[in-house]
Amino acid sequence: MLEAILGGLRLVATLDLRLWEIVGLSLAVSLSAVVFATLLGLPLGAAIAVGRFPGRQAVIVVLNALMGLPPVVVGLFVYLLLSRAGPLGELGLLFTPPAMVIAQTILIVPIIAALARQAVEDAWREYEEQLRSLGVDGLRGALTVLWDIRFSLLTAVLAGLGRASAEVGAVMIVGGNIDGVTRVMTTTIALETSKGDLPLALGLGIVLIAIVLALNAGAHLAKEAAQRRHG
Amino acid sequence: MSAILPLRLQGVSFAAGGRMIIPPLDLTLEAGASTIILGANGAGKSVLMRLMHGLLAPSTGRVVWSTDGPRRRQAMVFQRPVMLRRSALANVVYALDAAGVPVGQQARLAREALQEVGLSHVAGRAARVLSGGEQQRLALARAWALHPEVLFLDEPTANLDPGATREIEAIIKAFDVAGTKIVMSTHNLGQARRLGDEVIFLHQGRVAERAPIDRFFPQPASPEAAAFVKGELPWD
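^ inputs. structure came back:
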């Protein structure tokens, strides 16, 4: 056991090429998914927060429920979409990194949208009267609020990133865990553990945790600094 | 620029959640005299001012200004000011920008407004870290920069200590001197006397009495107002 941990640390410390390729692909896939999910999720969350339309409560319930979307189900859904016989089969994306980005984007849009919805709604309650009194309405008001709570929204985006980088099911199904092509940290850990290559699995596990920790620490510090500066 | 006053409320009522908060009323506000809105908690003071300012739409009736599009020529200061997470100066600039003031003039007008309320020294500080009194002065600066014809104030000193209250009152006086019509609700009867020319006394959403301030306090005509002035709570 100790041997395996030391082996894992050695792989990390010696910048093992195979390990870092996997780390690089993981980050590329999850960060891309976060960018797309943020572009979709923030406006969606803000619109639901500020908008008044029939069925709004139902939309909020569904959105919150979708935060717990099982990754394998999303994987299956995207697999069906992209498989040769599926509606988007023509694109030939199955078992490629873009397919993994699509699956993770779908997985985390609800997380970012639901958390943004809550943050924007709370802020909107506080700002609405004042902004309307100043003659600010609609889109401009929404943008003002989004910008004003940008550091709270960072938390929503990070929650999405945490979910994306930690999930196995979706990327496993649509990526296929092909060595050197679609193998990411989580799928490799799953595979290598079942094969008995514990050092690589542990090394990747250490890197994965370090990345998540560093991101959250960074976000926390940014938020603290903003709090001190802007109140 | 023709005046937006007088403001006429014609058969204006407001109901929410099946409860009538303001039964239909007619009311005219002229330029000049500072109007103080008095009344117990829940008498409808805040709702009435929000109807006038246009933040609430009346359930029935009409709120009519003498000229169209008066939104930018009236301002409101709330009990608890809401500041954006940016500098004090930037908060005033934001209001000017929202009011359509040309970009080239915004910074100068904002600095003048901060000067007026005595906040020049904190222009660059984050608005949200200012004290409660400073934030309320900043809210007044934000209104001052717009040179409104009418300024609504909803219990502007309710959360402030006596020192801060005096500073706010001085600024409200300055608005009055500069020709802005003051419409203010307050629980502070001394403040009403210091700043007001006339009183509109609300009881359960109705105008129970409207009188010059010199007459209202010594001889309130309505029993509700008499009880209120004596410090009794008009339960019934």
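Chain A has a mean pLDDT of 90. The two ends of chain A are 49 Å apart (CA to CA).
thumbs up if we can close this ticket
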